[in-house]
Amino acid sequence: MARKKIIAGNWKMNKTPSEAVALVEELKDLVKNDEVDVVYCVPAIDIVPVVEATKGTNVAVGAENMYFEESGAYTGEISAPMLVDAGVKYVIIGHSERRDYFKEDDVLLNKKVKKAFASGLTPILCCGESLEQREDGITMEWIKSQIIADLAGVSADDVKKLVIAYEPIWAIGTGKTATSDQAQEVCKGIRDLIADMYDAATAEAVRIQYGGSMNAGNAAELLAKPDIDGGLIGGASLKADFGKVVNYNK
Fold first, then answer.
1. What's the confidence (pLDDT) of residue 176?
2. 3-state secondary structure the chain
3. Whole-prediction pTM value?
4. Residues assigned a catalytic role
5. What's the average model confidence in pLDDT over 93-105?
């Protein structure tokens, strides 16, 4: 069975609640595509109004982060049960900005992945290399180390539901994009790794996104590649052009 494409917008730290609802209304008719799963990953304060605004549409709502504990003295954090109760379906884990700016390591991210699955959320697990790592020729070595650590102790049944986002850090928000061949090479390497860690059926089931400046101009070429199953879209998800990415096949 062919993997269904998944296009997710990562709004990052943008949009007040009222602005978020306005953007949902603007995009509502533009992101209709029965052949694509569409997700808006929004700031925590926007989750409740965006869940309400997307009711009756084809859009699922995701969070940009979560903590691995269910409750307690963790000021400023948000838990998986809170997200589930609010109507969230997906959660981004291990975005390069979380790894870099907030020093989240693979031990922490592994706990988050496990908690997301245990709570019924679908993790969008991010991995990717810096420009220096790419130039040093260690792209796949680095990405494999991230994924092996982040999925330690996670079952094949859960991994089959996982979304992995390959995000070359050097292409995020820079306007630079990996060529479709470069992106395909890494996404195939990730799928091969999942096959090695689990089995061929698990590798065939997992969906792998490209997350480095995908936009209306390059989406069709990237998504034509056999191992690229979608996109994790940053800035372009905050504009009407996001509809063109979702409808890359029209």
1. 74
2. CCCCEEEEEECCCCCCHHHHHHHHHHHCCCCCCCCEEEEEEECHHHHHHHHHHCCCCCEEEEECCCECCCCCCCCCCCEHHHHHHHCCCEEEECCHHHHHHCCCCHHHHHHHHHHHHHHCCEEEEEECCCHHHHHCCCHHHHHHHHHHHHCCCCCHHHHCCCEEEECCHHHCCCCCCCCHHHHHHHHHHHHHHHHHHCCHHHHHHCEEEECCCCCCCCHHHHHCCCCCCEEEECHHHHCCCHHHHHCCCC
3. 0.97
4. 95, 167
5. 97
